[in-house]
């Protein structure tokens, strides 16, 4: 073979490889398969050199070469081991016959736990069937049983690595076998310790509890083996202190054996630092001492560590008793104060202590590393596992799978974490396997041998084209995904909410539910129980997630004014969306959505009805930005798109009405969640109503055009009242006037008939009975009111206002604003009415007296019979009407000379009046406070009851609900909040009425 040919096969130094091939006696023809498999190793040069060394020390090199040629399984296993592990190559050189460990059926078979234990105990001359096996100090190995144990251990690792590196064992199998091998080694070491001190061993029973990765059966090739010791006096021994001293000496001797070094090297360190009180505490405690410590003194991290506790060696009955006693304490730990915060803080401390130079190469402790996955899984286990035994596994991948099956983690998230965990553990194994040393750092590319180490690692992982680049790219991608999922799961607010629940309530059973429902304030516990049963029955993933969510959500429902309505609404929404994958995932992963949903459904019938018509809109609750008022151009574009998608005007406007319903829900949610104030609410409702009318007008015109006939006129829609002022409420009709202007040459009567038809079609489309809420258009503020024509020409309006216009119409026109139809025509209408609403020199004294008489008559005649004038938000004393009439009178008097007063907004007019000295600042503030509170209360009545109402209800149930919707809270059954609302309202409106009477009626 030529140097070039070997270089092309992957050897780094072709000339050196040629010499080594010749030294090994490899014939290119007879041993071509051997050279081929050597080139497939992680490091072909290292594998070839290792084979040369093995052949040189072998008593019969021909036997080995013949075996490699005849047995392809042996050939692949041996070359993979030689190319990946210098440490195992050294073992083969020390024990040349051990290559046979990689040949035959045993090399391909995964041994059982009992088999591994028995094999190592036989190695040290101990009887595996004995209750307390004792080693034979005079065994076959002249260097003693500890040396024999190390040799046997490395033989087991050699065989295991042969399967691992050839893909015959997956990560889970490899890690479990390593954990079983470590446990068997400790049992054998304990047997040696008993042989060294038989008298002391006879005084005590000693159990070894595996912690960490050994306890979870997910051990690395080289890792500290974390243990805790529990001991009791042997039967018949009465001196407990002597027994504990003896157990301590036996345990210390056992720990020493795997960590001692001879020519076989060191196996690993046995670490007992996770015991109670850590390194400062006694090495060995009795069972009662352990229980007492964990009940009284243990910190949060200690319970997290106990999650993986498992008896691995020594007295099996005592180990089982330890686990039986400690396990309940582990699953109660999540109920400790600040438990979740403590675990999260501990993870941050781990990251903070990583040396800066190692942070980007640390695959275990660094960001995006194994600890991020393990901490996420363990925190979820500890919080949810106290009520779900299926989660109580010490193994990370098994626990993650249980979390996914139980609905606590999304399938995709669980799959992503599992894949990342396997990748990182595989990298960790390959790093450690090279020298059989404990490490979690990727090689430093800047170090002299860093590129070669990274190349070997990349090839071992299967990256052939560009091993270093592909390895680093995969690591960065995996680390980024782990970090994302860790942030999502580890800091999930639901963990805090579940952890705060009493242990018995963390996963509510139907038997427990009735009493709790009554305690939480549900009026109909039996009905609520039926809803819970319907939501949580069965074994589906949907039911599993609901069983996690509902114990927490019941608390949130109970905080709402009407918990029963909230739970009923949640059931209805869930019935419609429960099979939709994103819905329950959203509630579980973004607890803010679930909490907001519970509050809204338990507070507002209006919101519930809107949500049930399109339950998918629950997604907008995830982010405050999604609740913000949307700009008019955006809504206009969506409405136009909706019209284009449908063939008929009816279907097109129905889609636009659905758009409006969505915006009503958005606005109501923002209002109740205090994301938007009353100004934003009024503006949002006004904008979407204007967009809806504009779209309906376009559809109406297109519909009439399809019926034949030319367009004869232009039409503009003028908003009036609160619509024109941008102050619509949920219950408001759209007050409008219609103005048209015949096109040049068109007959006026025909144009008017066309305009009438257009308006009728517009109103029909907006009010067609449908699932979407209608938009009622009210034109009663037009000239002559209900007696006048629905539509007038611009010239007709001009003629009317010149001859017949009254003061109330000038006042009404203060808030007139074109909102749909022909823009140029709307501007001409504004120019027409400006002299009426902003009369030169201001309104006359006679007009002022007329306005005052009209206001007094309205109070006397329009206030509903039996209505309490102190609680009527619109027409009552100090209510909306009082404040608006004060603002409008100031405008009629002074807007001709103060241009800033030419505004349609009530509050803006008050601000300008204060700024120009027309209104005392304190009076202006008093009026503003009353107007805002009355507007909020009026909106809350509609939101809570689902129907319009201008009076504050006096019934305690409704009043309490309205108070809750407005943010009032009390420690009792709500009467305190209700009383506070009434007190605040009456106080604010009483003050406003005083200001109104002084400003409005006095010159």
TrEMBL record:
UniProt cofactor(s): Mg(2+)
Known EC number: 2.7.7.89, 2.7.7.42
Glutamate-ammonia ligase adenylyltransferase repeated domain location: 77-321, 596-830
Region annotation (Adenylyl transferase) ranges: 502-1003
Catalytic activity: [glutamine synthetase]-L-tyrosine + ATP = [glutamine synthetase]-O(4)-(5'-adenylyl)-L-tyrosine + diphosphate; [glutamine synthetase]-O(4)-(5'-adenylyl)-L-tyrosine + phosphate = [glutamine synthetase]-L-tyrosine + ADP
Record domain PII-uridylyltransferase/Glutamine-synthetase adenylyltransferase: where: 346-490, 871-1000
Classification via InterPro entries: GlnE, GlnE_rpt_dom, NT_sf, PII_UdlTrfase/GS_AdlTrfase
Record region (Adenylyl removase): 1-494
CDD domains membership: NT_GlnE_GlnD_like
A GO molecular-function descriptor: [glutamine synthetase]-adenylyl-L-tyrosine phosphorylase activity
Keyword field: ATP-binding, Magnesium, Multifunctional enzyme, Nucleotide-binding, Nucleotidyltransferase, Transferase
Pfam families: GlnD_UR_UTase, GlnE
General function of this protein: Involved in the regulation of glutamine synthetase GlnA, a key enzyme in the process to assimilate ammonia. When cellular nitrogen levels are high, the C-terminal adenylyl transferase (AT) inactivates GlnA by covalent transfer of an adenylyl group from ATP to specific tyrosine residue of GlnA, thus reducing its activity. Conversely, when nitrogen levels are low, the N-terminal adenylyl removase (AR) activates GlnA by removing the adenylyl group by phosphorolysis, increasing its activity.
Sequence similarity: Belongs to the GlnE family.
NCBIfam families: PRK14109.1
Protein name: Bifunctional glutamine synthetase adenylyltransferase/adenylyl-removing enzyme
């Amino acid at each position: 073979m030529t140097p070039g040919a070997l270089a092309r096969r992957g050897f780094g130094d072709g000339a050196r490889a040629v010499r080594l091939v010749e030294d090994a006696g490899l014939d290119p023809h007879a041993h071509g398969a051997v050279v081929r498999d050597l080139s497939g190793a992680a490091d072909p040069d290292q594998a070839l050199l290792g084979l040369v060394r093995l052949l040189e020390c072998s008593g019969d090199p021909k036997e080995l070469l013949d075996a490699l040629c005849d047995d392809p399984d042996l050939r692949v296993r041996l070359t993979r081991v030689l190319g990946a592990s210098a440490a195992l190559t050294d073992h083969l050189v020390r024990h040349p016959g051990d290559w046979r460990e990689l040949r035959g059926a045993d090399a391909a078979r995964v041994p059982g736990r009992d088999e591994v234990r028995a094999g190592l105990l036989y190695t040290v001359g101990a009887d595996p069937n004995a209750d307390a096996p004792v080693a034979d100090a005079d065994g076959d190995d002249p260097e003693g049983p500890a040396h024999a144990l190390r040799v046997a251990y490395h033989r087991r690792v050699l065989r295991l690595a042969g399967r691992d590196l050839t893909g015959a064992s997956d990560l889970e199998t490899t890690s479990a076998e390593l954990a079983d091998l470590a446990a068997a080694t400790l049992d054998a070491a304990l047997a040696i310790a008993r042989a060294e001190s038989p008298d002391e061993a006879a005084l005590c029973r000693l159990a070894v509890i595996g912690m960490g990765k050994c306890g979870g059966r997910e051990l690395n090739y080289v890792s500290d083996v974390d243990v805790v010791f529990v001991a009791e006096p042997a039967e018949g021994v009465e001196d407990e202190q002597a027994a504990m001293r003896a157990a301590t000496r036996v345990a210390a001797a056992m720990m020493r054996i795997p960590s001692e070094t001879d020519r076989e090297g060191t196996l690993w360190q046995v670490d007992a630092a996770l015991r109670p009180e850590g390194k400062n505490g006694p090495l060995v405690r009795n069972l009662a001492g352990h229980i007492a410590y964990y009940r009284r003194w243990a910190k949060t991290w200690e319970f997290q560590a106990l999650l993986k506790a498992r008896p691995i060696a020594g007295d099996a009955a005592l180990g089982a008793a330890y686990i039986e006693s400690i396990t309940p304490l582990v699953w109660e730990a999540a109920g400790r104060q600040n438990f979740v915060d403590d675990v999260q803080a501990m993870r941050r401390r781990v990251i903070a202590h990583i040396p800066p130079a190692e942070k980007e190469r640390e695959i275990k402790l660094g960001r995006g590393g194994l600890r991020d996955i393990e901490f996420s899984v363990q925190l979820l286990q500890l919080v949810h596992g106290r009520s779900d035994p299926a989660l109580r596994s010490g193994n990370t991948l098994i626990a993650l799978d249980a979390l996914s099956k139980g609905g606590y983690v999304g399938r995709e998230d669980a799959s992503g974490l599992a894949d990342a965990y396997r990748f990182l553990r595989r990298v960790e194994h390959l790093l450690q396997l090279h020298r059989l040393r404990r490490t979690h750092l990727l090689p430093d590319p800047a170090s002299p041998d860093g590129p070669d180490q990274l190349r070997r690692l990349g090839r071992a992982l299967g990256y052939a084209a560009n091993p270093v680049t592909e390895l680093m790219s995969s690591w960065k991608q995996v680390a980024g995904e782990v970090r994302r999922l860790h942030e999502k799961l580890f800091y999930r607010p639901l963990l805090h909410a579940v952890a705060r629940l009493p242990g018995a309530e963390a996963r509510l059973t139907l038997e427990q539910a009735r009493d709790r429902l009554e305690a939480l304030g549900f009026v109909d516990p039996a009905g609520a129980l039926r809803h819970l049963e319907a939501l949580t029955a069965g074994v589906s993933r949907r039911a599993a997630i609901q069983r996690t969510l509902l114990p927490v959500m019941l608390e949130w429902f109970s905080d709402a004014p009407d918990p029963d309505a909230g739970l009923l609404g949640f059931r209805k929404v869930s019935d419609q969306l429960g099979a939709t994958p994103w819905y329950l995932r959203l509630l579980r992963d973004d607890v803010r959505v679930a909490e907001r949903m519970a509050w809204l459904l338990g507070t507002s019938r209006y919101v519930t009805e809107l949500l049930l018509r399109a339950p998918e809109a629950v997604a907008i609750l995830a982010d405050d930005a999604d609740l913000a008022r949307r700009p008019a151009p955006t809504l206009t574009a969506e409405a136009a798109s909706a019209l284009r998608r449908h063939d008929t005007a009816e279907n097109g406007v129905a889609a636009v009405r659905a758009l409006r319903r969505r915006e009503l829900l958005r606005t109501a949610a923002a209002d109740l969640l205090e994301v938007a104030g009353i100004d934003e609410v009024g503006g949002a409702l006004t904008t979407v109503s204007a967009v809806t009318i504009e779209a309906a007008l376009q559809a109406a015109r297109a519909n009439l055009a399809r019926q034949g006939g030319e367009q004869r006129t232009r039409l503009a829609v003028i908003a009036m009242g609160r619509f024109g002022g941008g102050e619509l409420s949920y219950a408001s009709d759209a007050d409008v006037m219609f103005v048209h202007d015949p096109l040049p040459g068109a007959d006026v009567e025909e144009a008017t008939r066309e305009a009438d038809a257009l308006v009728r079609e517009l109103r029909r489309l907006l009010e067609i009975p449908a699932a979407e809420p209608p938009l009622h258009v009210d034109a009663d503020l037009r000239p002559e009111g209900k007696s006048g024509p629905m539509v007038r020409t611009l010239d007709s309006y001009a003629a009317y206002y010149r001859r017949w216009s009254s003061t109330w119409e000038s006042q009404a026109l203060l808030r007139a604003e074109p909102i749909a139809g022909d823009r140029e025509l709307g501007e001409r209408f504004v120019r027409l009415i400006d002299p009426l609403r902003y009369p030169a020199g201001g309104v006359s004294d006679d007009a002022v007296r007329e306005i005052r008489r009209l206001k007094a008559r309205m109070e006397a005649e329009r206030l509903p019979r039996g209505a309490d004038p102190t609680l009527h938000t619109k027409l009552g004393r100090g209510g909306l009407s009082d404040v608006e009439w004060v603002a409008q009178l100031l405008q009629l008097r002074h807007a001709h000379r103060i241009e800033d007063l030419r505004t349609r907004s009530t509050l803006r007019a008050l601000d300008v009046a204060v700024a120009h000295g027309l209104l005392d600042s304190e009076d202006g503030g008093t009026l503003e406070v009353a107007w805002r509170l009355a507007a909020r209360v009026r909106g809350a009545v509609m939101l809570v009851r689902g129907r319009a109402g201008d009076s504050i209800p006096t019934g305690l149930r409704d009043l309490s609900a309205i108070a809750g919707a407005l943010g009032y809270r009390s420690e009792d059954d709500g009467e305190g909040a209700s009383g506070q609302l009434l007190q605040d309202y009456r106080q604010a409106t009483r003050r406003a009425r005083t200001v109104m009477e002084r400003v409005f009626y006095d010159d």
